[in-house]
């Protein structure tokens, strides 16, 4: 009775898990994926279980039926096997059934787990290209070969288990004796085992034959793919071994007819000897005595194959390498004609998350990510698209003192608001100029985009892993808080979810299922759940897409965008493989790791080792109702075509992407990281030069991030020969053995005719253009005095992203510098833009604004385009050459003391509750005056104590209107 009850409970929980999965897929209209995967897994499970049980169980029964008719004593006397047999024989049927059931479970689960391999095999689409060695269509290696290996491995396992279990049965029932002095095995037992060994060797012959095709994935040679030794030694050896294995299989089968163990013994010895000599020794001799003394010449053809295949597999074969002799000195004509830097992004999305948190969090139960995103939105005055740093205000959970089941799952259900600021400007205090902010959301961007739905029920915050019960009759969900009575009181606006997403939990049955799923009795008993309520779960955008498209790899960075008046999450999805012939295989995780890789996000990666990658799908998740849409992006990708055959209708055609969505699509970061890693070697197409490796590159380490690669950056770049800047993803390379700049690479990230075009500006081999690390050191040495002043007291200087871009015939480096200041009232410190550093050739500049820093660097080169308050570039007068301050040691010490005193005054003003903004402004002016005296002063023996940040503004001005909050989370208006 107890066992039956346990079985019923276990079955109910299993059913609850499967059926709630079905309900979730039904809620997002992807039941075709659920049913397709489940049905395929069940069919493969049944096939795997039946075949394995049939082979192993059949051979066990056959061995039992072939037991000697005179019993175990036929070989003379009893043995240890008799004791085992007598103990097991009364229960042999039960033991057999239990063993077969366990075997069926494991075999079926293993075979069912290969559903992706099966679906790729039966839905395969030809590539239309053949490999260099066997002239087979690439689809054979990508889809057919993995399936053949899967079947062979399964059959090998079945035959080996059959031989082992048959031998045990023969031993127990007298078929052979390990200690008998006379005949050791009956003729039936010998014949049975001989046949099984013959089948095993026959399978080995088939495996040897298909091993030949597997040589295109070999890593024996200088590069991945079939090498000289593989083609000229291993390939013929595999063919010979396949023939020998067939002969040996025949000898094993002949042992059934001819009594005695001579033929099987000869077969076994021949197989082992040939495998050692032909399969091992011969290729090793060829490698040692033919290849190693002349490796470059021997491997040249195969290196060329690897280069061609790798460049195709990673989508870099059409990358354009442009010789670029970067100038160290800019001339008047070039500087005056190039206006591309006037709108460069200064806000670092990897730093200003804390600033968004401080100024736009509003309440402690909201949160912004540490790493924000860069998108493109129109300038409200010019209508031109510009880089914009964006984020959504997500829910982090109820306040600790109010954390109970009702509040966590029924009241605090969603975040609220979209926050954005142009990347190329800040206000007078160095804070972002928000174009979308506050609660409810206001700002020019809201009007431009006609943003109407700002509730965030689906997002990246870890709290999204929890479920929420929404909808129904009760208006109990917290929508957003607000201030009232001139800020002396607080209130809140409630709402009720009306979206189409979510699973209905109005019925007792569904509530019971979800109570079992989450182990939460309140889901069953709560009176706050009505017949119109829904449950929302799997709310992380990447996780939702991973469930509806389990055959795709996903980018680790979903980003929010305003599309048709709603906030949607955009996620780039990839088709990957490790079966592209001759292509270099590398770790996806290692290629995409850098200083901004977010370990918090779980990325679906069907395989980590890859040698093929395409950004084949663009996916979106509606932040309000969770609607998931998958759109074809790379229409030529055979892997995607294969999966669309497997799941027709799941992925929408490319022409269904709306214009409003397309303008927010961008070249994916993960793919670009993979391509730059591959291009660090495979920009070389000549096999001899590739073999020497002298021109290999490295991705430089982040100058402010330690021994980790510098991330790529989204920014608007004007490449040589292009009429206008374009939104691009950029990176740099340095030589393997040097700090100088080797190359600059950019890809057009905006959908259009030029989308995805990789352009590499390659420096001359004798270049003296400084690399990012050298430029960072130059900045620190040149401006150590003012940077040290910025880090006085408890302030922490933080370097922003060191941007590199072509300008005026050379390369310009631009780096924003932030100071982290205390937030007041115990809040976390947040960065404020205080300085902009510029480097071009041997010249560097440091100023409060990009315009002034450019004037310092290009004072003698011509008129610089600038961006005034209205965002329109103009042509300022010829700037004066900055004069180097000539301060005595006493004057320098006094200036530093004045700066420290001003900083202390500012911190004291901020520490008041509420902050004294008038005193803070006066202190900022004093600090600016002190820093102005130090501007340009170099202290050779000083080094900055931390990462740097720009100076304070001459006059304080608040960054915006007060947010509806009881806490000073936004700067107050002047009247406050």
Automatic annotation (TrEMBL):
Q: Which UniProt keywords apply?
A: Cell membrane, Membrane, Transmembrane, Transmembrane helix
Transmembrane helix as a keyword of this entry, yes or no, is: yes
Chain spans, region Disordered = 467-496, 862-886, 939-976
- Taken from the record, one Pfam family name reads UPF0182
Q: What membrane topology is annotated for this entry? A: Multi-pass membrane protein
| Segments passing through the bilayer | 36-64, 94-113, 147-173, 193-210, 233-254, 266-285
A GO-annotated cellular component: plasma membrane
Give residue spans, biased composition: Low complexity: 485-496, 867-886, 942-976
Q: Which InterPro entries match?
A: UPF0182
Question: Which top-rank group of organisms is this from?
Answer: Bacteria
**Localization per record:** Cell membrane
Does the keyword field hold Transport? no
Q: What is its main location?
A: membrane
Its family remark reads: Belongs to the UPF0182 family.
Q: What is this protein called?
A: UPF0182 protein Pta02_81540
